[in-house]
């Protein structure tokens, strides 16, 4: 085993955003030719933990549509649960469980939900998502929903530039309920107004599970430097993602192939702006993510190699690859008092200063 392989496999690596193909084929344990992520590829790539997301695309915001999409999201989480029972994998909603799986040499599966549209206007669905193992929910996708404004309004759905001016009243209630449940608030895809309000409202650190730096690529899905500062101030994390359109402008993509070096350029910018403590890694595999040098989970050591080449040490690489995500996960658990059976008891919709975490003062 080379020094690179030894280092990479010694790190608890977490890919924080992977889509699952739907309808489910029950093939997660197989080495497939058509998936960028399956259990054999995760093993070959030394990826210790994979956040598999139940993604639902934005549609009409009427009661029948909400009911149908809520059922689909629950079915998708159940499919992720089955993937977590595959040979050599474990369903691991808690940080301690992820670490225990890593020590045992098992792949950890962490469920999540992408798009608050999945809960419609029914806050009780959040507890059902959490009961199926979900640990974060992305507030929006492309198109405004009942909770919040999206970074990318959809004219085909009748969206104007804004629907709520950021979070709706329901969205504020949803964040309070997510905090109570230990369901982390993911602001990828959210409008800038939504994101900044969510950071102020959430009692646990906010994360962006698959976004890049707008300073390097002016795309509405990316976070500008002030948004990065807000994530730092709430002790959150932004996870750079392997979508070429988020990494480089169109002119660059037309001139050359976007690869791992471009990806790590975004990590470098975020580290210079807000520090190693606040940056992580995601692929968005099977949801549009794929770049030269990191085309599937099996090629994940290429990122470690590039980070080493840039001068990051082992502790910094470990923080970027998974340590920062686990810190935010534990903070959410502390706010929710997971394991004690108690909630936070805070008032829904109450705003808190950046960085305020129950019980820590951080």
Automatic annotation (TrEMBL):
Enzyme class: hydrolase
Region: Disordered, residue numbers: 342-362
InterPro entries attached to this UniProt entry: Metal_Hydrolase, Pept_M19
Pfam families membership: Peptidase_M19
GO MF term (any one): dipeptidase activity
The entry's keywords: Dipeptidase, Hydrolase, Protease
Protein's UniProt name: Dipeptidase
Organism annotation: Nguyenibacter vanlangensis
Upper classification of the organism: Bacteria, Pseudomonadati, Pseudomonadota, Alphaproteobacteria, Acetobacterales
């Amino acid at each position: 085993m080379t020094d690179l392989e030894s280092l990479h496999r010694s790190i608890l690596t977490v890919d924080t955003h992977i889509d699952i193909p739907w309808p489910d084929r029950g093939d997660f344990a197989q080495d497939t030719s058509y998936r960028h992520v399956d259990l054999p590829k995760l093993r070959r790539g030394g990826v210790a933990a994979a956040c598999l997301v139940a993604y639902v695309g934005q549609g009409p915001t009427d009661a029948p549509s909400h009911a149908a999409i809520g059922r689909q999201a629950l079915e998708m989480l159940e499919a992720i649960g089955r993937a977590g029972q595959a040979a050599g994998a474990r369903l691991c909603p808690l940080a301690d469980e992820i670490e225990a799986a890593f020590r045992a040499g098992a792949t950890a599966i962490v469920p999540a939900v992408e798009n608050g549209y999945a809960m419609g206007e029914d806050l009780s669905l959040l507890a059902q998502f959490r009961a199926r193992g979900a640990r974060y929910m992305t507030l929006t996708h492309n198109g405004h929903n009942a909770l919040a404004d999206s970074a990318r309004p959809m004219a085909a759905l009748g969206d104007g530039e804004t629907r709520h001016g950021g979070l709706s009243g329901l969205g504020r209630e949803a964040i309070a309920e997510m905090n109570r449940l230990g369901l982390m608030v993911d602001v990828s895809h959210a409008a800038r107004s939504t994101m900044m309000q969510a950071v102020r409202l959430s009692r646990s650190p906010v994360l962006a599970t698959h976004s890049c730096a707008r300073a390097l690529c002016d795309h509405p899905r990316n976070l500008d430097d002030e948004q990065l500062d807000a994530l730092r101030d709430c002790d959150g994390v932004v996870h750079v993602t392997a979508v070429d359109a988020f990494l480089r402008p169109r002119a660059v993509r037309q001139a050359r192939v976007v690869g791992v070096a471009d990806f790590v350029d975004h990590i470098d910018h975020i580290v210079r702006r807000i520090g190693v403590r606040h940056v992580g890694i995601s692929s968005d595999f099977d949801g549009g993510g794929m770049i030269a040098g990191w085309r599937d989970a099996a090629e994940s050591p290429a990122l470690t190699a590039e980070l080493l080449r840039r001068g990051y040490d082992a502790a910094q690489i470990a923080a970027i690859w998974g340590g920062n995500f686990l810190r935010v996960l534990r903070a959410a658990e502390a706010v929710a008092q997971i394991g004690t059976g108690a909630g936070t008891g805070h008032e829904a919709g109450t705003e808190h200063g950046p960085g305020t975490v129950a019980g820590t003062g951080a």
